[in-house]
Amino acid sequence: MLRIIGIPLGPFETNAYILHQQDTNEAVVIDPGMNPEPLFQALGDMQVKAVLLTHAHLDHIGGLGLIRERYGCPVYIHEQEQEWLTNPELNGSLRWPQITGPMSFAPAEHLLQDGDELELIGLKLSVLHTPGHSPGSVSFVFDKQCIAGDALFRMSIGRTDLTGGDHAVLINSIRTKLFTLGDDVNVYPGHGPATTIGFEKEHNPFL
User: Fold this and answer.
1) Is 119 exposed, middle or buried (0-12, 13-18, 19+ CB in 10 A)?
2) From the CB of residue 117, how many other CB atoms can be counted at a distance below 10 Å?
3) 75-78 and 47-52 beta bridge pairing
4) Which of 16, 20, 45, 76 is the most exposed place for a label (fewest CB within 10 A)?
């Protein structure tokens, strides 16, 4: 049985997610954010097989070095943001010096494109390229669940004033990619509580 565990991390309260197959004790981590100690506590003795990144902003990648060191697992990111892992100016870690130092990590082992299908821990995950918040933002969809990063929130959308952000592109991503999913699809955002596609279609004031 699959469990989806959300853990808010760091000063931005960024949601890290664990996809945990209880029968095999295997896990995938999505967006290991800053100050990842609560994430490691939740993982316990799980076998982490991969780290997936919805995008490469500092608050979503802050724990990347530690989780790689601990589990030796491969990292997946959209090809447009491969350089962001190594470049503190692009990933935004130079923007908040009062919160963190410059972040630079080794490149990802796997580069994603729109339409990719990943098979991990017995799951089939579809990759949707959902840019706008950042150029390489992606959402991961499986079994009527969607990990949406900072594209779509409950009653809100991602900010577009950071490097590569574009409001019109974000709205198009939500309408043409996310809103074409079923109304009953659960959305797990990068910040705040979960929602559904149907709820956001009806109530989101930005859309």
Assistant:
1) exposed
2) 9
3) parallel
4) 45
CA–CA separation, 175 and 160 (whole Å): 16
SS (H, E, C) 83-97: HHHCCHHHHCCCCCC
Q: What is the pLDDT of residue 11?
A: 97
Is the pTM higher than 0.85? The answer reads yes
pLDDT of residue 168: 98
Q: Where does residue 143 fall: left (phi above 0), alpha (psi -120 to 50 degrees), or beta otherwise?
A: left
pLDDT under 70: residue ranges of the chain: none
For residues 205 and 207, give the distance between their C-alpha atoms in angstroms, rounded to a whole number.
6
